[in-house]
Amino acid sequence: MPARHAVAPPQGCPSPPRRRCGLAHPERPARTLSRFPTSGDNVFKQPSVFALSVALAATGLAGLAQADTWPSKPIKVVLPYTPGGSVDTSTRMVMEPVAKALGQPIVIENKPGANTTVGTAQLVRSAADGYTFGIVPASYAANYTLFKNLPYKHSDLAPVSHLVDIPMYLFTRAQTPAKNVKELVAWAKTKPVSYASTGPGSTGHFLGAAFTLKEGIDGTHVPYNGSAPILADLTSGQIDFLFDPAMVPMPHVKAGTLKVLAVSLPKRCPCTPDVPTLEEAGVPGFVQSSWIGLMAPAGTPKAIVDRLSTEIGKALKNPELIKKLADMGMSAQGSTPAQFQALIERDTQNYAAIAKQANISLDR
């Protein structure tokens, strides 16, 4: 067991040569203390500014002291997906150098279910002691719109860092009579079409809904359980297009069974420099990627959050890690807690607007 640093209790009275506590000031008459307050006493006295300053300073110093000895044992990261997927793999890639820098193991605990809300709820219930953190994907921001009665709220968690962006690409089968986005839109307006996603409320679902609404396409959403089963139906013509990360569909593009038309980023991704953005392809103002970030239970000492955020930022500047993530179709980020908070707030608003227009909800 790691050693615990006990804080010595304050002494009741200072030792001589100082005057003993409890003696009246020699120039003032001794005050008689009654058991009950008199009319001249203010029962609800506010603490002085000095007292508040001391209390706040003590709290800050306690947090700094805790950060100085942190971490003294393994750290747990709750991940709301099954093992082996892209989020699980990329998280382990990022956390490996962070664990080395901190000198303690980082243990990934997979807790999938209910559009990631099971894992997030467990994180919220965890102690805010700096030894439990959790991964949240972009669906974390969407869930506040999708579910009316989530078992947590934004203020239950504190942002740590934006880890990676996951660009979303527009794919269609090789036989679709469209060489670009404009031609796909023109073709889709001649008939009812369908678009796939990895599940209701996923980033792909929101992007497909927003795209069909924006372009006036009569599109039906078809949810699947993961990217792999989508590809069989997409290549065979059972569905018409898909917004998805590059990792699973891109090999089929190289094989000639699918084609990629655009990416929903503000600028082209370095990993796919030949793929235009949707803005370049004629769909202005259409920018939305998926992402992964790290959160802490609210109340986790700020000094610990800041240190972990800093170590993550250092890890994500490593060229070798950047390349590994790029090979998975991901873009290394790293951010301050405040920057990640701004991203969450922006996407919460974006998803709410799309859900309202497309009538997307997961409440039963």
From TrEMBL:
CDD domains: PBP2_Bug_TTT
Transmembrane segments: none
Lineage top rank: taxon: Bacteria
Region (Disordered): 1-24
A Pfam family the protein falls into: TctC
Similarity section: Belongs to the UPF0065 (bug) family.
Name listed for the protein in its UniProt record: MFS transporter
Organism the protein comes from: Comamonas serinivorans
